């Protein structure tokens, strides 16, 4: 399974997108408070030409609700191509716990430490 690293107290891991024009690897911050699959900035979603699926009502930390566009992507994950939802929001790519389900996540919090995922 993939390995990543810790940088500036962020656990980072790469996800490879299976796009019509070829594969593209993007570095994501692991966000254990995010329960869906992936978040990408709107500009990245547009650059990858990910197809729109639906708008999703998301509750923010302050209790407010916003509608977020959800797009479809195919990624290489766990030795196969998987279809996932990508929320178009924020300034930094985030990977949520939906993709971590069934894995053991190890994050030694020190600069440049190795982040690992192991299938359970």
Helix content: under 10%
**Average pLDDT, all residues:** 94
Low-confidence stretches: none
Strand order across the largest sheet? 2-3-8-4-7-6
Q: Beta-sheet strand percentage?
A: over 45%
Q: Major sheet, described briefly? A: 6 strands, mixed, barrel
Helix segment tally: 2
Task: State the total count of DSSP E strands.
Answer: 10
- What is the chain-wise order of helices and strands? EEEEHEEEEHEE
**First-last Cα distance:** 11 Å
Radius of gyration: 14 Å
Shape: globular
Structural class comes to mainly beta
List the topology elements.
Layout: E1 3-7, E2 10-19, E3 22-30, E4 38-40, H1 42-48, E5 52-59, E6 65-77, E7 80-88, E8 94-95, H2 97-100, E9 103-106, E10 114-119
Parallel strand pairs: 3-8, 4-7
Antiparallel strand pairs: 1-2, 1-10, 2-3, 2-6, 4-8, 5-6, 6-7, 9-10
Explain what the structure shows.
The protein is mainly beta and 120 residues long. Helices cover 9% and strands 57% of the residues. The chain contains two helices and ten strands. Strands 2-3-8-4-7-6 form a six-stranded mixed beta barrel. Strand 5 and strand 6 (65-77) form a beta hairpin. It is globular and about 35 Å long. The chain starts with a strand and ends with a strand. The model has no long low-confidence stretch (mean pLDDT 94).
Please describe the structure with a list of short key phrases separated by commas or semicolons:
single chain; 120 residues; mainly beta; 10 strands; 9% helix
Write a brief structural summary.
The chain has helices at 42-48, 97-100; strands spanning 3-7, 10-19, 22-30, 38-40, 52-59, 65-77, 80-88, 94-95, 103-106, 114-119. It has 120 residues and is mostly beta strands.
